[in-house]
Design brief:
346 residues; Aminopeptidase; 2 domains; 4-stranded mixed beta sheet; 14 strands; 37% helix
Length: 346
């Protein structure tokens, strides 16, 4: 090898070494920056007596049964806001088990009846009603979800439609097999959906339309929930197969600046990294068991108590102690009849 070629080789090796060092430094910075959210012990009870009338229940400051947190388990409330009246028409509670490398996600129907005195007692109004009453809308939604689950989610993330579209576009779109023709227009919400059935590559706006479409399903909102589950699972499978999330820095930037959340950018990056550690078969989606009902001329969904408790304890409960009906504050269905629990409210 002559001197000139040797010099070129040393220069190339130096550049390569420099790039490797920069890459290693970037990975180290990423791992330091991406961190799990802090989980604080919740003092509210899992189980409270319901046999006593409200006036005779223990005061808020009374001692409550201790709870033991499962190691490596995090819960998150995910909700999507529409562009119309501020309601949250998509609500999911997720439990991430970092030790089992598993993610369970349960959708709660938007029309779920709440045990409140509102004129329209639907879960999807909890955000807007909180804001109307001078509260933080997301915290109001968390509190009402907690009445249904028996525990408060550790964190929340409220996404609007524009952020959803931008994230899917940043990811490069998603391959998805659209099962049926979807045609719907709502100029009041600036919504146009025109999708033909069959395998295709969806951009952000098309994916948003797919996840919002419900007029063509016999069971309307439940059909939409199932389609959302199929789409999100397709996203997860696509990126787990790749072993990475394309343009992840851009995705984290969009989410950290567009979400209404109590998570930091580092927390969001950590959750994305944990998602990649899961196998696609260990990412599971469920819909809260429910049945339709009518009250005062308004259509509602009422949770089926016994299968709901089973789902809570199997797929969502972050504590070692089981959640009992007495921990909930909800209207429910059991054996075809309606009832309500009377737990101390969150």
């Amino acid at each position: 090898m002559d001197r000139k070629n040797g010099k070129i080789l040393r220069l190339a090796l130096g550049v390569l070494l420099g790039l490797l060092l920069l890459l290693a430094a970037a990975v180290c910075v990423w791992r330091i920056w991406a961190r799990a959210p802090e989980v604080t012990a919740q003092t509210r009870p899992l189980v409270v007596a319901v046999s006593k009338p409200a006036a005779h229940r223990e005061p808020e400051g009374a001692a409550t049964p201790a709870r033991t947190r499962k190691d490596g388990v995090y819960t998150l409330l995910l909700a999507g806001r529409d562009n119309g009246n501020g309601n949250t028409d998509t609500m999911m509670v997720a439990r991430l088990d970092t030790e089992a490398r598993a993610l369970d996600v349960v959708s709660i129907p938007r029309d779920t009846m709440l045990n409140t005195g509102w004129q329209i007692r639907k879960l999807n109004a909890a955000y807007a009603m909180g804001a109307l009453n001078g509260e933080n809308g997301a915290e109001s939604l968390c509190r009402h979800v907690a009445r249904l689950t028996g525990f408060e989610p550790d964190n929340y993330a409220i996404v609007d439609l524009n952020a959803f579209v931008r994230v899917i576009d940043a990811l490069g779109g998603v391959d998805f097999d659209v099962p049926v023709a979807m045609d719907y227009e709502d100029h009041g919400q600036d919504l146009t959906i025109h999708l033909q059935p069959g395998p295709q590559h969806l951009n952000g706006y098309q994916a948003m339309g797919l996840c919002r479409f419900r007029s063509g399903y016999a069971d309307a909102d439940i059909g939409r929930i199932e389609m959302q589950h199929r789409f999100l699972l397709a996203c997860a499978e696509q990126f787990i197969t790749l072993g990475n999330i394309p343009h992840v820095a851009e995705v984290v930037d969009i989410l950290s600046h567009s979400l209404e959340t109590d998570l930091s950018g580092g927390n969001i990056a950590w959750f994305l990294r944990q998602l990649l550690r899961c196998r696609s078969e260990d990412i599971r989606f469920y819909t809260a068991p429910s049945r339709p009902t009518d009250a005062g001329g308004i259509s509602y969904t009422v949770l089926e108590l016994d299968p709901w408790l089973e789902m809570l304890n199997t797929s969502l409960n972050p504590y070692r102690e089981a959640i009992a009906a007495e921990a909930l504050d909800m209207v429910f269905s059991r054996g075809g009849a309606l009832g309500w629990t009377a737990a101390r409210r969150f």
